[in-house]
Amino acid sequence: MDVQKQNKLLAEKVYNSTKLKFEQGLGSQQEIYNAQAELKVAQNNYYSAIYDAIIARIDYLKAIGKL
User: Fold this and answer.
1) Do 37 and 43 touch, CB atoms closer than 8 A?
2) Quick one: residue 25, left, alpha or beta (phi over 0 = left, psi -120 to 50 = alpha)?
C-alpha cells in the first residue's frame, strides 16, 4: 500500500510538471494525455491496495472471532 501511495504521488508530480511544460509551450498534448493516463492508473492501483487492505483486515477479524 505504501509503494502504491508513492507511485501515485510520483505520477501526480509527473502530470503537474508535464502540464506546466505544455502551458509554457514546451510539451505536446500527447505528453499530457500519457501523463494523465499514468496518473489514473496509479490512482486506481492505490485505491485498489487500500480496498485489499480493508478486506484483509476484515478477514483477519473474522478469523480471530472479533467480527
Assistant:
1) no
2) left
